């Protein structure tokens, strides 16, 4: 993931260039979002087989319809919202979600996926197994809060639900995670 403090990226400007058909701007956008979407979609769906397809569908929609961004949120909120809806649709089609994916298998793509939270728990393995037992909406809240550093207000926009629902999901997710301690 790029270091935004050293080289801030004007995502709205890139999106405007994409709207003008600038393939180079889309390549920048793709490289910026691919690892973030990979991690987010993997956490929500636990479906390693379809993750590439969901990322491609998300980014293709952005390439084909960048004008859908309404400037009422951050670009990242809009992108994660698209990815979340596509992930839920895939889960719905499958009729279930898988809890047997080991996120450590994707270390090369994600970097150190558990670096921020692993310090707060005994082992990263424990955390991976515990998160696997959460429903997708609660995993999404955990992922967006702790790994992407988003406030509840932004998460509510991504998940298309009230902010209090996000807080409730976090409350229940934490209770479930405590049960694994």
Count of discrete alpha- or pi-helical segments spanning 4 or more residues: 10
In terms of DSSP E residues, the strand content is under 5%
Structural class: mainly alpha
Large-scale geometry: globular
Distance between the first and last residues' Cα: 30 Å
What string, H for helix and E for strand, traces the elements in order?
HHHHHHHHHH
Q: Residue-averaged pLDDT, rounded?
A: 82
Helix content: 55-70%
- Tally the beta strands: 0
* Uncertain regions spanning at least 5 consecutive residues: 1-5, 97-123
CATH class: Mainly Alpha
**What would you say the CATH architecture is?**
Orthogonal Bundle
CATH topology: Rna Polymerase Sigma Factor, Chain: A
CATH H level: which superfamily?
RNA polymerase sigma factor, region 2, helix turn helix motif
**Integer-rounded radius of gyration:** 16 Å
Overall domain count: 1
Main sheet properties? none
């Amino acid at each position: 993931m790029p270091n935004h403090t050293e080289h801030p990226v004007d995502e709205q400007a890139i999106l405007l260039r994409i709207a003008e058909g600038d393939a180079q701007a889309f390549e920048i956008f793709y490289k910026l979002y691919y690892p973030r979407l990979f991690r987010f979609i993997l956490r929500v769906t636990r479906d390693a087989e379809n993750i590439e397809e969901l990322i491609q569908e998300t980014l293709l929609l952005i390439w084909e319809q960048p004008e859908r961004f309404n400037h009422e949120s951050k670009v990242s909120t809009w992108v994660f919202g698209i990815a979340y809806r596509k992930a839920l649709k895939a889960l719905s089609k499958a009729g279930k979600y898988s809890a047997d994916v080991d996120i450590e298998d994707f270390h090369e793509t994600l970097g150190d996926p558990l670096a921020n939270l692993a310090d707060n728990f005994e082992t990263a393995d424990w955390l991976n197994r515990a998160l696997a037992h959460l429903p997708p909406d609660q995993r999404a809240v955990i992922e967006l809060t702790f790994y992407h550093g988003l406030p509840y207000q932004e998460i509510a926009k991504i998940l298309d639900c009230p902010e209090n629902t996000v807080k409730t999901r976090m409350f229940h997710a934490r209770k479930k995670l405590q049960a694994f301690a």
